[in-house]
Fold:
Amino acid sequence: MRFTALLRGMASTFLAPRPPRTEREQPLTRAQILALLDELPVSEWRYDWDPDTLHIGPMAQDWRAAFGYGRRETTIDVVDANGVLIAAVQELSLRLRHLEQQHPARPACHCARPTAPDPDPATATATATATATCRSVPCP
Structure:
């Protein structure tokens, strides 16, 4: 029985999926997947049969409760984990593109502006004057 389960797990890991036989009435959107992934608890754990190896990730029960993917509550199928992560990355990429369109990049300032104000007023004025422009690009 354990060997059969192992073979089934390997099939979901290495074989390309066929078109789905059934789908949800309302599939999760990429935004919903990202929100669920953001709330998914992540912990460190060890298998009983391999106590020397530390793993990190969600518990299969939490995964199943959040997404409803997979055959059972005791495993996370690799194909489902990959699908969720790809959908989340696509959503983040979309959000990043929207931010970049709303706030176009400014030319970078390459000056050596100090990170903290200089407490000595004499050198602070000289530093501010020296770094007012940088390669013809105004400093922020």
Remarks:
- DSSP finds five helices and four strands in the chain.
- The mean pLDDT is 78.
